[in-house]
Write a structure and sequence with these properties.
about 325 residues, alpha/beta, Rossmann fold, 3 domains, four-stranded parallel β-sheet, 16 helices, about 45% helix, binds 1,3-dihydroxyacetonephosphate, binds iron/sulfur cluster
Length: about 325
C-alpha cells in the first residue's frame, strides 16, 4: 500500500529527496514549524521531532509554541487538540487516516443521548476523543492526570467518564469514586495476553511488569508500576531493575532504550501471534509522509469554529488543573 502511495506521489511530482532528514530540517526552518511526536511513532519520526511526549506533554507543548506550523506526528485527536488551542496556526497531520479506536468508540450523537440519560453529571473525557465529544465535556484528562483531575471534583457530584472503560476503572480504584463509564476501549491495550505476560515473567523472574492504564484489569493486576507513557519512561530510569516487560505500544521502547541503554525491555506479547501490540493508526505516519505534508502543507486539520470554541474550555481547565 505504501509503495502505491509512493508511486502516486512521485507521479504527482512529489519526488522524495535522498536525505529525508536534511530535507525535513530545511522545511522546518522555511516554515517556522515545530514537529511534535508521540512515543508510539516510528523511531525515525521520534528522532527528527522537536519534542516527544505523552498526550499531556504534547498538548502543553502545543499550547505554548511560537511556531507558525505544527506538524503533529501522532493521531487525529492529538492534532485536533493542537488546532483547538491554535486556531490561527497551520496544523498538519502526515496521514489523515491516523485515527484512534477509543475516539471512534464514542460517536457524538450516542454520547449526547448518554449524557442526557445521566443529567447533572460532571463529564470528564479522556483526551482520546473527538472535538465534538470534547465540546460536550466539562474537563478533559489524559492518562497522566486522570486520577488527579477526578480527585478534585466535589464528592457530591456524580461523574461521567468517557470513553475508556479501562482507564475509568483504574481511576475508580485509585480515587474510590464511582464513575459512570462509557464502554470504549483501545484495540492495542486490550490485545495483551495475561497468560503470555505471566509466562514471560516466569522466564524473566527479575523483570518488572510496567503497564499503561488503558490495559485490561487482568493485565494491570500483574503490574509493578502503572502509568502514562511518560510516567513509564521515567519509572524505567529511576527503578533499580535491569529488565522490564512493557505492556503498552512498543514504540516507546525506542526512548526507553535510548535513556537506559544498559537495561533490557521486553514488549508484552499480544494474545495472537500478531503485531497487534503496535497501534495501526499511529504507524500510518511515516517519515516520507511527514516530509510530503510539510512540502505540500497538507493534510491540514480544520474544525468548525463553534465546536472548537466549546472544545477549548475543557482542555484549558485540564491544563490549569495539571
Ligand atoms: P498517553 O500518551 O497519555 O500515555 O496515552 C497513550 C495513548 O494511547 C495515546 O493514544
Ligand atoms: Fe488510540 Fe490505542 Fe492507538 Fe492510543 S494506542 S492512538 S488509544 S488506538
Amino acid at each position: 500500500m505504501f509503495i502505491t502511495a509512493l508511486r502516486q506521489n512521485q507521479a504527482k511530482g512529489n519526488d522524495l529527496p535522498n536525505d529525508l532528514f536534511a530535507a525535513i530540517e530545511d522545511l522546518k526552518r522555511e516554515l517556522n514549524a515545530v514537529i511534535l511526536a508521540h512515543y508510539y511513532q516510528d523511531p525515525d519520526i521520534q528522532d527528527i521531532a522537536d519534542y516527544i511526549g505523552d498526550s499531556l506533554g504534547l498538548s502543553q507543548k502545543a499550547a505554548g509554541t511560537n511556531a507558525d506550523v505544527i506538524v503533529f506526528a501522532g493521531v487525529h485527536f492529538m492534532a485536533e487538540t493542537a488546532k483547538i488551542l491554535n486556531p490561527n496556526k497551520l496544523v498538519l497531520l502526515p496521514d489523515l487516516n491516523a485515527g484512534c479506536s477509543l475516539a471512534d468508540s464514542c460517536p457524538p450523537h450516542e454520547f449526547a443521548a448518554f449524557k442526557a440519560a445521566h443529567p447533572n453529571c460532571v463529564v470528564v473525557s479522556y483526551i482520546n476523543c473527538s472535538a465534538e465529544i470534547k465540546a460536550m465535556s466539562d474537563i478533559i484528562c489524559t492518562s497522566s492526570n486522570a486520577v488527579k483531575i477526578v480527585s478534585q471534583i466535589p464528592e457530591d457530584r456524580p461523574i461521567i467518564f468517557a470513553p475508556d472503560k479501562n482507564l475509568g476503572r483504574y481511576v475508580m480504584e485509585q480515587t474510590g469514586r464511582n464513575l459512570i463509564l462509557w464502554e470504549g476501549s483501545c484495540i492495542v491495550h486490550e490485545t495483551f495476553s495475561e497468560k503470555k505476560i505471566v509466562e514471560l515473567k516466569i522466564e524473566h523472574p527479575q523483570a518488572e511488569i510496567i503497564a499503561h492504564p488503558e490495559c485490561e484489569p487482568s493485565v494491570l493486576r500483574h503490574a509493578n508500576y502503572i502509568g502514562s507513557t511518560t510516567a513509564l519512561l521515567k519509572y524505567c530510569q529511576r527503578s533499580a531493575s535491569e529488565e522490564f516487560i512493557v505492556a503498552t505500544e512498543p514504540g516507546i521502547i525506542h526512548q526507553m532504550q535510548k535513556e537506559a541503554p544498559h537495561k533490557h525491555f521486553i514488549p508484552a506479547p499480544a494474545t495472537n501471534n500478531c503485531a497487534c501490540n503496535e497501534c495501526p493508526y499511529m504507524r500510518l505516519n511515516t517519515l516520507e509522509k511527514l516530509y510530503l505534508a510539510m512540502k505540500n502543507k497538507t493534510p491540514e486539520i480544520t474544525i468548525p469554529e463553534d465546536i472548537r470554541v466549546a472544545a477549548k474550555r475543557p482542555i484549558e481547565r485540564m491544563l490549569e488543573l495539571s
